[in-house]
Methylenetetrahydrofolate reductase (Secundilactobacillus silagei JCM 19001), 288 residues
Amino acid sequence: MKVVNCFNERPVISFEIFPPRPNASEKAIERFYNNLDVLAGLKPAYISVTYGAGGSDNNSGTLDLCCYIKKHYGIEVVPHIPGINFTKSAVKAYLEKLKTNHIENILALRGDLPKDGNIKGDFQYASDLVSEIKRDGDFNILGACYPDTHPEAKDSVEDIKNLKCKVDAGVSQLITQLFFENDHYYQFLERCELANIDVPVQAGIMPVVNERQIKRMATMNGIRLPQKFLRMMAHYQDNPVAMRDAGAAYAIDQIVDLLSEGVDGVHLYTMDNPVVTERICGAIKTLI
Ligand code: FAD
């Protein structure tokens, strides 16, 4: 099923997960699949699976994991494809595998620039990959977008023009980069409206459990951290359990506000963490 059809019943709640690292120990893999059981039991509308996110080489498990989720839980999947890692012929071969496995959805990305800066693939921008996928078959294509503006864009106007080109190339739904200030998302939706971007835009929400990790991600991705969020992290940085609980509470607060505003959907960056994801889903169960 094409997951764009999920928006017939809004709001759409979906998850992002990471595949285990290729060199993960047996114990870590077992833990991963136990966690996946819990996440799947929360019945998200679909699960998206990252591909080497963060510029790492953690790329081998995406397709296998998607097939496993679809077969084992009957949940729709969205493999991420970062174009900078793919040649044209590699994309063609990958799409064939998706067709064979009845996977109809793709999150088409440019990809995080690799640490050594060397781009191996044929696609400079996500929109180039979108056009290539469109030529090759009947896929439902998702794209990424940036309420705090993509860090490489000159400004928010240029970024939204580029986003319009990507949507026009064939993207039918968008997922935002994580953000911690809902007003930035609402202002971004206004810019989308002005640019005639009229596909559903799911809000990407990440519950924060680790201060160092989020500060690194924020710096890398140009995500603005509001004062009240920084205060919260500074206060609980030495107490991991309190940080986890405060991070979940902050995410719930954001989601309640988004749902009250009639958001198209929320894509939870689960970081494969079942405890926090379960807590968030429990808290919003009656609001959907
Ligand atoms: P693009 O849409 O190509 O945009 C990148 C930059 O180029 C922007 O500044 C844009 O304004 C500009 N631009 C776009 N088109 C043009 C043009 N025609 N001319 C000039 N400038 C242009 N990375 C991974 O490696 N693996 C993952 O699994 C992964 N998952 C992600 C999931 C989500 C929901 C999000 C939000 C990001 C994810 N990323 C992942 C990170 C993503 O690859 C990076 O944010 C990357 O820097 C940009 O990707 P994009 O697809 O948005 O690129």
About this structure: The pocket of flavin-adenine dinucleotide is lined by residues 50-53, 80, 82, 109-112, 125-127, 144, 150, 152-153, 159, 162, 165-166, 175, 177, 204 (CB under 6 Å). The chain has a mean pLDDT of 95. Residues 3-287 form a domain with the TIM Barrel fold (CATH 3.20.20.220). The radius of gyration is 18 Å.
